[in-house]
Write a structure and sequence with these properties.
single chain, mainly alpha, 3 helices
Amino acid sequence: MNLDVNTSMPRASLTSRMLRRGPLGAIATAIIAAGVVMLMQPFFLTLYSWSFAVTLFGTVMFTIVSKVRE
């Protein structure tokens, strides 16, 4: 009787665990939210200036991530 548990389940590599829709989608959503917060804050002109670029980057990232496998 073989008690080795790891032979029945293939082990996923580090990159395949990181490049999944769930974590990357959450990161993209957080980037979009940060861009919106940067857009709405009235104190720092630099943050306001970069808000559109950050929001656009998050949106493009979310669009690309939505095509990645589950």
